[in-house]
Amino acid sequence: MILSLWIASQKVESLQKVSPRYDIVVVAISSPILVGLYLEDELVESMSREGMCSDVLLPMLKDLIERYEINSIIYARGPGSYMAIKIAYVTLKTIGLAKDIEIKGCSAFLFNENNPIKAMGNLYFVKEKETIITKKIDATKKRSFTLLKSIKKLDIDDDATPLYLLPAV
Fold first, then answer.
1. Predicted structure pTM score
2. CA–CA dist 29, 53 (Å, integer)
């Protein structure tokens, strides 16, 4: 009896080793949409697609979810394009519920070295210490977003819901 339990536990352990679980990071704040696949917190595959979040995000995720066992999806929950954030959240939340995948959120500033993020017109979201404000900036060099090589020290927010910051008009 003890031997058969031990053999069964070894089979389960062996299966767990054969099927590693991956994490996905999504940055859908602006085009191009970025999706990274992480194994043991290290980036192993990345995708970048120009276009609207509503058109490109789901096909990018579908490919990864079909090929890998996914543990969690972490997304840049804002600030940024209100519509892109909303579409990303609804898409990810639906996938999370359907596939039993945990959805987590983090600040978009983590993916652009804390540079201003376009809000609308010449208004930008700016992070000052721990506060996010909108500031009028006449000319700024466009700062692109990049996936992190490692998410080991990624600052995950307690809340995964979108961070909607609407600038005063």
1. 0.85
2. 8
